Protein 1
Amino acid sequence: MNRINQKLEENKKLLSIYFTAGYPSVNDTVSILKELEKSGVDMVEIGLPFSDPLADGPTIQESSTLALKNGMTTDLLFEQLKDIRESVSIPLIIMGYFNPMMQYGVDKFCQKCAEIGIDGLIIPDLPVDVYHDQFQAIFEKHGLINVFLITPQTSEERIRFIDSISSGFIYMVSSASTTGAKNTFGEDQSSYFEKIAAMNLKNPQIVGFGISNAETFNQATKKAKGAIIGSAFIKYISANPPEKISDFVEGIRS
Amino acid sequence: MKTYHADEKGYYGKFGGAYIPEMLYPNVEELRQRYLTIMNEASFKDEFDQLLRDYVGRPSPLYYAKRLSEKYNSRIYLKREDLNHTGAHKVNNTIGQILMAKRLGKKRIIAETGAGQHGVATATVCALAGIECIVYMGEIDIKRQAPNVARMKMLGAKVVPATSGSKTLKDATNEAIRDWINNPIDTHYIIGSVVGPHPYPDMVARFQSVISEEIKWQLKEKEGKEDPDYVIACVGGGSNAAGAFYHFLDNEKVGLIAVEAAGKGIHSGESAATSVLGNDGIIHGSRTLLMQTEDGQITEPYSISAGLDYPGVGPLHAHLYESKRAEFISITDDEAMTSGLELCQLEGIIPAIESSHALAALQQKEFGADDIVVINLSGRGDKDLNTYIDYFKL
Ligand SMILES: Cc1ncc(COP(=O)(O)O)c(C=O)c1O
C-alpha cells in the first residue's frame, strides 16, 4: 500500500510540511527531511523550484528564486533523494509546476519518483481534466498518487469529480489566495471547512495555504484530516538551522 | 475543411488549452462558458462596433505606400493601426474585454503590461467605463517606460510594480494572475495578447480580427480583390498578427509572415525569437512554444522593443509555426531600427519599434512586382522616441 494511504489510516491529525528544495542552501534537502521525520512530522512536500510559480505568494516565490540561483535542478533533486528511503520512512510528495516535469518527460519523471520512493505528486497547474485525459495512466503505472486542489469557489459537482479521480487525499486550499502565512481563520473558512466535511467525500482532506501556528493548525484540523504548513516553515528555516526544526514542530503541535 | 482556428477546448493542434491552478478555474470557466454567447449578442456587437468607430477611430486606413512600394518593387499596403486612439492595435482588445467584463458583472479590472501600451489601453477603457483599474508592470519596465506610467496614472489606473523574478513582462503577468487568484469574484483580467489559458487566445484573436476584416473590404475597394498575396505582422505574444491573419488563416493562398525579434542576434543570448529558440512547454496557463532552460525554467528574452520582449508566443502562432502555415522570420534590433527610420523618410510615418520589425521583413524577403503585400503597422513611434533618440544619437 502507498505510504500516503497508510498514513491517512492513522488515528491522528496529520501535520505535513512543505519546503522548497535547494533553499536555504542547495544541499539542505536531506538534512531537512531527516529532521522533519525526527520531529514527528507526518508527511512532507518537497517543492521542486520553478521560475514562475504563479500560485505562490512572496515567501515561496523568493525561496524558489534563491533555490534556482543556488543551482537546484530536477536531476540534482533526484540525485539528492537517491538513497532517501534508507533514512526517511514518512510519505514524501513532490510538489512542483508542470513545465519542468514536462521537459524532463512525464513518464521518466514518474519512473524516477517511483525508483526513489516518492509516494505522490502535487502539480497545481496540471488541471484535473488534462490529468484524467492524458496522464492518469502514467501516474498509476508508477504507483504515484496525484493530489488535487479544491478551493472555496470549487463547485460541489467539481469537488465530486475530483473526489472520484483522487486516490489519496484532497488538498483543500483554505481561502481564495496564493500561498502565504495568515494568523487566523475567520467565519468564512469555518463554514467552508464544515461544508466540505458534510459532503462525506471518499478521500480525506488536508488543508493548506495560510496555516502558520498551533491556532490555525487546530482550526484547520477540527474537521479535516490534517494540515500543511509551507510559507511559515520556510520563514522559520531562513532564520534557523535544520537542528532547530523540532522547536518549530513542537510549537505547532502544542 | 482544415482550420487553423481554436477547437472547443482551446487547442490549436497540440498547443493551447488551460493549464491553470484550481484557484483560477471558476473565473476562467465562467469566461469560457460565456464569451462566445456574449460576443454574439446583437447589443454587444453594436456597442463594440460603435466604440471602435466613434472612440477608437476605426476603420483604420489601408494606405498604399507608394514610395516604399517603389523602393521594394512590390505593391505594399500599410494597415494603419498606429492611427487608433492610444496609438496601437491594443485598444481593439481592451474595448472588447471591458464590454465583456461589464456583462460578466465585474467591478474591478487587472492587467499586465510590458512597454505600457496594453496598460494604457486598459486604463483608457476603464476610465471610459468608470471601473477600477490595476496594472501590473515589472519594476524594470516602470523605469524604462516612464511616459506610459504617467499616462496610466492620469487615466486613473493604479500601477503596481512587479518585483518578483526578472521584474519584467512575464513577472507582471504572474502578478496579475496571482491578483486574480486572490480576487476570484469581482475581478476580470484583461490579458493583452493572444496568450494565457483558453479562452483568452481565441477571445483576443476575435477582438483583433477586425483588422483583417477591414483589410478584406479595403483591398476589394482598392485592388478589386479581397485577398492579398502576403500579410506581414510582428509577433510578441501575437495579438496584432492574430488580428491581421485571422480572416486569411484558412485561405492558404494568402502567405502569412510572422516577424519575431532577434534582438542582438538569434544566437547572441539576447534575443526574443521564440520560434527558433523556444520549445514546447507551459507558460501562463497555455501549452505553446517558449524560451526555457533544459530544466524547464522560463528564461528572460531581450529585444530593443519592449512589446516583443516576451519569452513565449500565443498557441495559435506555435501551431502556425509547427504546421508551417506561416513563415517565421527574425529581425535584429539594428534591422528594425533601420527600417523604422526608412519609413519616416519615405512615407512620413514614425512607427513603433515593434512595427518596425514587421517592416524590416522587406529587407529579408523579396516579393514580386505584382504581389500585394499588407504590413500591419501595429503602433506609432511616440512611445519609442527616447529609444530612437539614443539609437540614432538624434
Ligand atoms: C505597437 C505594438 N505592436 C506589437 C506589440 C506586440 O504585441 P502582440 O504581439 O500581441 O501584437 C505591442 C506590445 O506592446 C505593441 O505595443
Protein 2
Amino acid sequence: MKTVEPILLSGNLAEAYAIKQLDVDVVAAYPITPQTTIIEKISEYVADGELDANFMLVESEHSAISSCLSAASAGARVFTSTSSQGLLLMHEILFITSALRLPVVMAVANRSVSAPINIWCDHGDIMPQRDVGWIQLFAESAQEAYDKLIQAYRIAEDPEVRLPVMVNTDGIILSHTYEPVFLLEDSEVASFVPWKLYPLRLDPENPLTMGAFGYPEYYFETRYQSAKALEDSINTISEVDEKFGEISGRKYGTVSPFRCEDADVILISMGSISETIRATVRKLREKGEKVGMISLKLFRPFPFKEMISLVQDVKAVGVVDRAFSPGAAVGPVFNDITSALYLSKMSVPCVNFFAGLGGRDVRMAEVEDMFEKLKEVANTGVVKEHRYYVGLRG
Amino acid sequence: MVTLKDYQGGETAWCPGCGNFGILVAVKKALVELGISPHEVLMVSGIGQSSKLPHYMKCNLFNGLHGRTLPVATAAKLVNHRLHVFAVGGDGDGYGEGGNHLIHTIRRNIGVKYLVHNNQIYGLTKGQASPTSDLGFVTKSTPRGVVSTPLNPISLALALGASFVARSFSGDVPHLVQMIKEAVNHRGFALIDILQPCVTFNHLNTYSWYKERVYKMGEEEGYDATERLAAFKKAQEWGERIPIGVFYKEERPAFEELFPAIEDMPLVNQKIEPKQFERLIKEFM
Ligand SMILES: Cc1ncc(C[n+]2csc(CCOP(=O)(O)OP(=O)(O)O)c2C)c(N)n1
Ligand code: SF4
Ligand SMILES: [Mg+2]
C-alpha cells in the first residue's frame, strides 16, 4: 500500500502525469474538447524538459493516429488522445494499428458525436470503435484513469498481447473534475512498465514489411489471428491488474461487482454512471433491498465468463447504455450481455436502459427508478418493456 | 430594399472586442449593398469561433463539421447555383483539418466565396497553435514556441491556380466590405483570408500589431492584380508590412458553368419527368 498523500488532479491531468512517468517517446495529437488539456499538459512537460519526448502537433486526428502507428512501428513508445469527432476521424487507422499488432496507447475522453454538436459525455464516440480490434478499458474516476493508463502500456507491450489499448474516461465528468489521486513513484512506474525496444519493429538491420497485400488465401487467417489475440489478451489484462494491485494497493478487475452476492436484481454499467449507481445501491441496501451492480471495466475483449458468473442467480438484469446502436433494437452493451447469457444457456430477464446521452445528468432518483422497474420484472418474471429511455422528454 | 435589419441575428457569444464582430458587420453590409436578400444566401460553416458567424445573422445556414465546409458548399452550389453560397471558418478549420478540401475546391473554381477568419490560433478550443501561427509563438500547445513554418494561404492559393485571392483585416470594415463585394461579383471561387484579432488567446497578433503593419495594395502605384508572378512576390510579404487587398484575379468559367444541364435552371428546380424517362428507356432498349 502506498502511504503518500494524494494530490488534487483532474482525470486529464492525472493521465498526462502518467504519460510523463511512462517516459513516452512520441506524442502526436490534435486539440478537441474535452481531451485537450491532456495534450496541453504533456506539451508543457516536454517543453520544460520533464519528459524527453517528440511532441507532434499535427493537422488532424487522422494524422495523429497515423504518426503514432508509424512511430510505434519504428519501435517507439507512443501516445495520443482524442474525443468525439476526432476519434471518428481516426477510425480507418484504428483497424490497421491492431492488425499490425502495434502497442499504441490512446486516452479517449468520451464525448457525444455530431449532429447536433455537443461537447458533453456519452459513449457515442467509442461504440463505433467496438470492432476495431483494440483493447478498450473504462475508468470510473481520475484515480482509475491514471492507474489504467499505466496498466495499458504493460498490457499493450506484453509479448503475449502486442495490441493497441484505449483508456476511456467520461468526458467533462471525469476529464475535468478534480479528485484526490494517489500517484506512484517514477521508479515504480518505470519498473512496472520497463521500456523495451519493440521487437517487431521496422529495422534496417532486419528488414520486414508491414501492411502488405493480403490475398484471399491469407486475409482470413490474418484477421482471425488479430481477433484471437484480442480474445486471448483477457488473461494478461487480468494478470496486469493483479500485479498493479501488488504495487499500488488498487486493482479493478475486468468486471467490478458491488453487493451482488445475494442480489435479486443487478444493474450493469460502464464509466462514471457506475459511481452514481453504486451510491444508489448503498442507499437501497440500507433500506434492506436486495440490489447490486456491476461496473464493466473492460469492454473489449468482452469479459463473458466473468460477467456470467456474477449474474447466475439473479432474477432480473438491467443494462445501461450511454449510446444508441440505431436499428439494432438494443444498445451495444446490452447486446454483449445478452449474448453472454445466451452462450451460457441462461435466460435471465434483461432490460435495457438508455441514459445520459449528450451529457444529460443521471441522478440517484433515476437510478432508483431503474431498480424499481427491475424489481417489477423480478417479481412478475415478465419483461413488459425491454427498453427504457431514462429522462427522455416528449 | 434589403436593409441591415433584415440580416439581424441572435445574441452573440464571442468575447467582447473579438475581431469576429468586424467580420459580421462587414458581411451584412456587403450583402445589403449588393441588394442580396437573406433567403438568397447560404452560409456553410465548420466548427470554431469563426464558424458561429452565420448563427448571428439571418440567412440559410448549414453548420457542419470541423474542416469540412468546402465539400458541403460545393455540392450546395451545384444543386442550386442561383444561391449565393459562402463558406465560413477559421484558419484551423480551413488550412489545417480541411486543407485538403481547399486544394481541390480551388482546382474546381466553383462559385463559392470562402471567408477564412485567420486569427492565427485555435480560438474555440482555447488557444493552441494553428497552421498560420507565427514561428516562435507561445501557445498552450507550443510552450516553447511554434517550430513549424506557418502556412501562407495567399501563396498556396496562387500556386494552385486560384482565380480570386484576397486578404483583408477585420479592423478595417470598409475594406472588408469592398473585398466581399468583389468576391461575390467574381466568377468562380474566391478566397478571402481575413486577419482577425483573437483578443483572448492571441496576445501576439493584436489589433495594434495588425494595424501597424497592414497597408492597402490598391493604394500602391502600379500593382496589377492580373499578374500572377507579381502576386506571388507580394504574397511573400509578412512581418514588417502586410499587404491587404486583391492579390490576384482572373476571369475564367466557374465550375457550375461547365454543366449544360443546369444552364437554364438550377438542378433543384428541375422536375423529373416520367415521360422523358420513358422515352430514354425506349431509346436504349
Ligand atoms: C474532427 C475534429 N477535431 C477537433 C475538433 C475540435 N475543434 C473545434 S474548433 C477547433 C479549432 C478552432 O480553430 P479555428 O478553426 O482556427 O477557428 P477559431 O475558433 O479560431 O475561429 C478544433 C480543433 C473538432 N470539432 N472536430
Ligand atoms: S476566443 Fe478569440 S476568436 Fe474566440 S470569441 Fe474570444 S476573442 Fe474571438
Ligand atoms: Mg482560428
